[in-house]
Structures are given as structure tokens and as C-alpha cells.
Amino acid sequence: MMNYAYLIMFGYIPYIAVAIFIAGGIIFRLIRWLMPKALTGLYNVNATVNDDSYGKITIEILKRIFLFYTLPGTDTTLFMGSLLFHWGGIWIALVGHLGLLIPPEQLEAMGISPAMHVLLARAIGGLGGIMALIGMLVLVSRRLADRSVKVGNFVVKLPMRSLSYLDDYFADALLLVIILLGLVQTLWLEYVRPGFFEYSVAPWIWNLASFNVSKAVSYIMAAPPITLAHVILAMVFIAYFPWG
């Protein structure tokens, strides 16, 4: 008999989270960045719709997302924290998570044995997770103390705690817990629970992608509790991201 709590949480809510992310996180945000009515964070330096083409604006946005090139020399702490967190937590860890989307039997067909898969998960996921954790701790500590930044020839003191709101701390706490749960699974549980990596969420994801909800839920019900917690918090973050 299907567990209705699992059916709602892991059968229907994933679609809602992804729909919110696509509608708000990609379409809405991209439109706002390209066609702003006022200055926005990624847009406010050397890019205006009157003077620059949409191609140039898009390149400017991508440079800021990947390189944070405007930060060195103005706020070094923000630069280091952002670089470590985004490259570790998003780009490197994301590549590591892509391995979860490949069913174990297909990995073996590609010549990647279960042992090699575990090693790659530890190496890539562990490296990305540690970078993300350090970066996140830097960013959180920066938020808790007043900072001085250089703007041209002037040094401006920023009261960071006064500029931080509840949603800022919520996002930070959510990300920290997600990162820590991921690191515990990647770097610790396999040692104390041999065979932990034998469970894969790939069948759950693939069945959701095929809209086979009942079969997807039957797979996720076998997941360890820490994996379920990691998945739930990830879905919360995916849905929250466009509005944070």
C-alpha cells in the first residue's frame, strides 16, 4: 500500500519545486535582468539597456555569475567566500551529483565499477562540499560583522547585520545544513556503514522524469533517513531560490 506522506513529499512536491524554479528562477529572473525597470545587483555596473545590446548584457551577467570579477580590490572576503561557495557548492558538486542521475547498471556498462563510482563521488563531491562549506562559513562570518569596502578612493563601512534580514539567515542556514548532510554522506557514512553508496536515487529521479510517480516513490522509500532529509532540504532550496 502506498504511503501517502511519501507520495506527496517525494511524488508530487518535486514537480512543484521544479516548476517554481523554472518559472521564477529562470524565466522571471532572466527577464528582470535583461529588462530592468531599475538597477539590480547583477546589472548595476557598466550595463544599461539604452547603451548595450542584450548579448553584451548577458555576457556581463555570466561573467559576474562565474568570475565575480568586480569584487577583488573592493571586498576580498566576499570575493573569496563567493568563489569557494559557488565553484565548490554549485559547479563542482553539481558535476558530482550528475553521477547520481545515471543508474548503476548504465555506469557499469560505461566501464565505471561501483567501487570507482564511490571513489569519484568521494573525490569530486568531497572536494566540492569542502570548498562550499569553507566559502559558506566565510560568507556567514562576513554577515555577522561590520565590513569596510573600498569604493574608488573611499573606504565605506557597511553595517552588515543591519543590512541582513531573516530571509538571508534562512538561506544561509538552509545551505549550511544541506552542505553538511552531503559531506556526512560522502565522507563519513560509507566508512561506518559499508555499502551505504549501494543505494542510488537515480531510479527515483528517472521515474519522476518519466512521470511514473508510484514507481519513483517505491524507490525513494528505501532511502536512508539522512538521504531523505538531504533531498527534502534540496527541494525546499530549489523552490525558495528564485525569491531569496
Attribute tags:
single chain, 244 residues, 10 helices, 69% helix, mainly alpha
List the helices and strands and how they pair.
Blueprint: H1 4-34, H2 54-67, H3 76-98, H4 104-109, H5 114-144, E1 147-151, E2 154-158, H6 160-163, H7 166-192, H8 202-209, H9 213-220, H10 225-240
Antiparallel strand pairs: 1-2
Helix pairs in contact: 1-9, 1-10, 3-5, 5-7, 7-10, 8-9
Written account of the structure:
The relative contact order is 0.13. The chain is mainly alpha-helical and 244 residues long. The protein has a domain at 71-198. Helix 1 (4-34) crosses helix 9 (213-220). The protein has helices at residues 4-34, 54-67, 76-98, 104-109, 114-144, 160-163, 166-192, 202-209, 213-220, 225-240; strands spanning 147-151, 154-158. It is globular and about 60 Å long. The two termini are 38 Å apart.
Largest sheet: 2 strands, antiparallel
Task: Identify the overall geometry.
Answer: globular
Helix count equals 10
Return the average pLDDT rounded to an integer: 80
The ordered string of helix (H) and strand (E) elements is HHHHHEEHHHHH
Instruction: List the strand order in the largest sheet.
Output: 1-2
* Record field, number of beta strands: 2
Alpha carbon gap, first and last residue:
38 Å
Provide the low-confidence segments as ranges. 41-49
